[in-house]
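Page 42, continued from yesterday. The earlier attempt failed because a stray header line got pasted into the input along with the sequence. Redoing it now with the clean sequence only.
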Amino acid sequence: MTYAQLSVITAAHPAAYQWLREAGASLLDQTVPLQWIVVADDFDTNGVTNQLATLPEQLRKRTTVLATGTLGLGAAVARTVALTEVRTPWLSILDADDQWLPGGLDTLLAAATTRNVSWAVGRCDELTPAGRRSHRPDSYVPNQYFWRGETPRVVETGLLPWHACVMVARAAAVR
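This time it went through. C-alpha cells are written below.
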C-alpha cells in the first residue's frame, strides 16, 4: 500500500461544480501519492459526488467529499473543514476552477523536501468561465521557497493571490 504524502484541498460552491472533473483530472497527471479532499460549500455532498462519479476509480478511491452544512459560508470555511481531514505531511489547495499542470505537484514536493522548506510556490492554470486557460501566477518570482518556520510576508498580509500554486508543510499550516 502506498501512503499519501500530500493532501489536495478543493473548496467548491455549486456554481463551480461544473469544473470539478477537469480539476480532478489534473491530479491524475501527478505521480506523488495524494489524497483529494473536496468540501462542498453547501448543505450536502450530492452535487460534488455527481460530478466526480465519472472520474477514474483510482482517483475516486483517494477522494474524501465533505460538506460545510450550509450554503454560502465561503471557501475559507470549506478549507478549514478540509484541514480537519489532512493526515499527510504536505497540503496544497486546488480551486474547483483550477488545474495542476502535469507533474506540477511532483516538482513542488521534490523541491520542498530536498530544500527542507515549509512552503514552495509553483504555477497552475486557471480555467476562465469561457473555458480558456489563464496561467498563474504571471508575475510571481519563480523558484520561491520559504525556510521552515518562516512565514512569507504575502501570507501574513493576506496578499497571496494564487494560493492554488502553493504547497505547504502540514506542520506550518495546522498549528
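Notes: The longest strand covers residues 6-12.
Reminder to self: strip header lines before submitting.
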